[in-house]
């Protein structure tokens, strides 16, 4: 199979996956117990007025009509309006998605730089005490729930020492011209530091362990001996020759992990009161605001699906040995 | 004929000579012996590693605590220890007994008047229940689906793998949250939601193993000899992928406990049972952080961490057995 037809087939699969996720989600929310209109329809309304509101959301029509409309709207990225605030869901997503992305990306950059460097070192100094302690630390970091580490950090540095803010993304009452004007303020960085550090500590373990085993594999190859025979310094062999060749599995793993990180943003955002997409989804689920819950979930799922797709393509692009079958 | 007490290496061949009525008994015995040998060998390799031994001791310890919870815990996990002036709402908690002389509670009480130590002890039940049940089902379903897809190939493989692809598109925690909101907050629903998603990775790995296994001569030989598909899958393929299933089962313990803790922490936990996640959630709801009541929120997290890291360590130990290159 040629590369082009692989990409086309993979794109078709992407479409089918999107459709499946959307469909399952649509029916799940319609099956949910509890009247979703309870929030928009107040008890004081006359039955006629109530009926009118229900009709304006299209909730009186048969399920398949609602479903067809849902598909039609999903194609134009229209997820309806919030039952709670009446705001279009698209706007809700645009408000919260950037916040999640800033938090995740900054944590990710730190985690991957640290993880890769430590992975190279542990792979190189195999069997040393340094390797053992680092690997055990990485495993511990992956075993402790992020929200728990977040709680401890909040308790130690927030409640006890008072050096980090207890919640939110900026001091109350501040307004900024734009999103970019906001994230380059000291106040924002002050709020970002703790949740990003907790996340980075958690995500670091994955690249570290992959890089370590990848290094071990590369170090057993002949060209490393050739480098030694040429009289290159150990450091040059470690970083210039071994690490660069060991980097390949990290790149695809990073793309996939980033998708799941955005999807898993729920907990850390809840702990730190970070106004991100994950927390908004939880809130929407809790108040049965299903257009918002559906829309935010779709974005989280789409991130994973698209990044998995990117990882597949990257893999073939970066490693010429890959064949498309 | 194979002697019963001293198995010969020709046991497989000798089987053909066994009398008709002895055959089934003998086959059972042989199966049993093979399983026992494989498991003992792997157990030895596994317990060779100090970290794995420590992890197993930890899990065994928590299992014992879970089983004997009523004898260890001094109070019921959801029994109020005292009533406030106003009756039901109690906001002044007792400090741990090692910090204040008046207190008779080892780790103090919660703002609702529950004994924290007892909650911690009973919490191990929820954690281990979720972990072990999820492990059995994820490994079981994943192995079955993976073997079926890999062995039959073609349309069956395509269909099953598209389902797995779809599941891979679902973010774990948000999906569990939505399913639990849909089905109602109970421990079983959380468990069900976790299992529904978790088998995906096991299925994918087992399938790729089965794809290569089915091309091996021993499978071809069994096919030629007229063995049924089920016989080949259960007798010839399954034992070969078993270490991998165990591996994913061990990891599933850890992931399931983390997921349950996370969902409970968000506030969608089972209101009628105590888990370490719900303990953390209520400590947060009553701002134990701001009051510095560390004895409320530190212990449950440590317990989660210990069980989860044990699961990961056992999994890694097993990984080294299945993939000798890691050693």
From TrEMBL, chain A:
InterPro entries: BPD_transp_1_N (IPR045621), MetI-like (IPR000515), MetI-like_sf (IPR035906). GO terms for cellular component: plasma membrane. Belongs to the binding-protein-dependent transport system permease family. GO terms for biological process: transmembrane transport. It is a multi-pass membrane protein. Residues 97-315 form the ABC transmembrane type-1 domain. It is found in: Cell membrane. This is Peptide/nickel transport system permease protein. The chain crosses the membrane at residues 12-32, 101-125, 146-168, 188-209, 246-272, 292-318. The keyword Transport applies. Keywords: Cell membrane, Membrane, Transmembrane, Transmembrane helix, Transport. Pfam families: BPD_transp_1 (PF00528), BPD_transp_1_N (PF19300). It comes from the Archaea.
TrEMBL record, chain B:
It is found in: Cell membrane. Belongs to the binding-protein-dependent transport system permease family. Keywords: Cell membrane, Membrane, Transmembrane, Transmembrane helix, Transport. This is Peptide/nickel transport system permease protein. Signal peptide: none annotated. SUPFAM superfamilies: MetI-like (SSF161098). One of its GO terms (biological process) is transmembrane transport. PROSITE patterns: ABC_TM1. It is a multi-pass membrane protein. The keyword Glycosyltransferase does not apply. Residues 124-315 form the ABC transmembrane type-1 domain. The chain crosses the membrane at residues 50-73, 126-152, 172-197, 245-268, 293-314. InterPro entries: BP-dependent_transpt_permease, MetI-like, MetI-like_sf, OppC_N. PANTHER family: D,D-DIPEPTIDE TRANSPORT SYSTEM PERMEASE PROTEIN DDPC-RELATED (PTHR43386:SF1), OLIGOPEPTIDE TRANSPORT SYSTEM PERMEASE PROTEIN APPC (PTHR43386). Pfam families: BPD_transp_1, OppC_N. It comes from the Archaea. It comes from Natronobacterium haloterrestre. One of its GO terms (cellular component) is plasma membrane.
